């Protein structure tokens, strides 16, 4: 793990406004970073003038994440467009003891990210962004299947049930159409069927059944960050699974992708 050089440079010795300053609720920050943390432990934080963005891919190239927050998600959003390398566990440690009110983050002249909430203040060392794996373009993943709108709790129920007897979960869409989930262990099996009438919406329903099988180790990590309410799944036949949901009351979006574990003949 490589940290940035913390010696201040002439351009960083500012006396007035820091080049990066964000103020938002603790919930917005933690929910956003937890979504990415379900896939990686380190990431590049892009602070563009038009909003915050993170894209990351796991070390095994099985799971990927992308989150975006518009300036409207913040009480204060100011950035000169730089990219920071962050260790998510360090920020998570700070947030775990911070009050649940507004959180202020800014870049100090020593090149550290400072986090403050109601008198509590952390100075967090940053990583060299170039030492962190190049983030993916999620559009490069083949995801041409049906888009299923359902509740996160429905997805969570299927993952939890599968975890009692197997290490994988098969998700698919039938031509009825219906969302289906299934898993089988050595002697036991489970299945869940959600008909179209119980879904929030369905786009591009398949003309014939399609399904893919995924490792529960990845799905369980992602399940912990899904909201209970609206989630969009994109499902195809032996294709990656995309789970998408809103952040910050609609001022942000998260997309999580998991590649199939088992290819069927």
TrEMBL record:
Name the record gives this protein: DNA polymerase sliding clamp
Protein species of origin: Saliphagus infecundisoli
